[in-house]
Amino acid sequence: MTGDPEPASIQPNESNNLMSMFATNAPSKENNNNLNQQDQLAALPPPPPKKKSQSKKKSKRDPSISGVFNLFGNEDEQIPSPAAPKMVEQRKEQTIITLNDLSQQKRDFAEQADHLEQKIELEENRTTDLESMIERIQREIQELRESKIQLIRSTEMEMRNMRTLMSDPDSFLR
Asked: What is the helix (H) or strand (E) element at residue 155, kind and residue range?
């Protein structure tokens, strides 16, 4: 390998064009190839303009995140669509409708809360009335128990008196 001469196609060529890269060393075909290649190059569209080299800051971000941002392009490259004002207007209308709906729901909930508070107040009043009624009934029950006990005692006294009279009829006549 050290003694192998370099091929002619690898050696630098004096002309710095595309044809020189594909040119062969055969002298008879060189003129024909140059003409054919010039025709082909003339038929091709012009190459795209090179982008201006901007001063890019090297950031120490994670390359996966930088790659995601590159997918979406720059904001300068984005073309505003003619439907954008309509979309903004629709969003405003939707926001207004949503706010109106939320306000209506808030009023409904406030009314419902007032109604429930009134119900709670009525039930509390009813509960206090029922509790006072329970206390009154318990007092009556206690009074009835006491009166029954007194009636039982008085009945018992009367029964004793009757027994004594029946057992000794002469004692009654005295």
From this structure: helix 84-167
Summary count for the chain: helices (H), strands (E): 5, 0
Whole-number Å distance between alpha carbons of 19 and 35? 10
- The SS3 assignment for 32 reads helix
Amino acid at 171: S
pLDDT in tens, 154-174: 999 999 988 888 887 666 555
State how far the Cα of 151 lies from the Cα of 122, in Å rounded to an integer: 43
What is d(CA 90, CA 98) in angstroms, rounded to the nearest whole number?
12
Could you tell me the residue ranges of all domains in the chain? 85-173
The structure tokens listed for 92 are 């405003």
Sign of CA dihedral 116, 118, 123, 124: positive
pTM above 0.85, yes or no: no
**Residue corresponding to tokens 């128990």:** 145
